[in-house]
Write a structure and sequence with these properties.
globular, single chain, mainly alpha, about 60% helix
Amino acid sequence: MHPFIQQIIELFDAEGHHTYGEGINQTEHAVQCAELAIRDGGSAELITSALLHDIGHLMATTDIAFGNYKHDSIGADFLAPYFPAEVTEPIRLHAQAKRYLCAVEPGYLEDLSAASLDSLHHQGGLMNEEEQQAFRQERFFEDAIKLRRWDDEGKDLELSKQQVIAYLDQMNAALTPQTTAQNV
């Protein structure tokens, strides 16, 4: 196992039991999102992105009941030396995807949980038209929207039967070639 993936698993083992206002813990939410990505036929990179999208919550402790409001960029930056943009950019953009969907999709805002509503306010609120247009131009716009939808749906305990290590094959497949070569 690559040492960085071992570090990720150890981080979930140590911090994954924490909740952030959703009634499930971080590990349960992570594996639920990964399972949704698998069911949708996601690539190894997108499954890994779904699994690790909230890793920033585990890394940046906070007293805020709903987690760290910058967890998207914290997580993406942490993963970037080892994983390609196909993994890290949907993570970096998933909070912005929420802002976008709240602005453009009728009923989306009303369906957000209390934790998502709270973080929406701290992450910039609804996108204006200029921000929406810029967001649609992002290379990973579509993947960020997929990840956001899995994030919203990943709160069902029936999908929580696995542990993070169960996604070892996808994480290994998603590592950058340079990272994989360093581990040989």
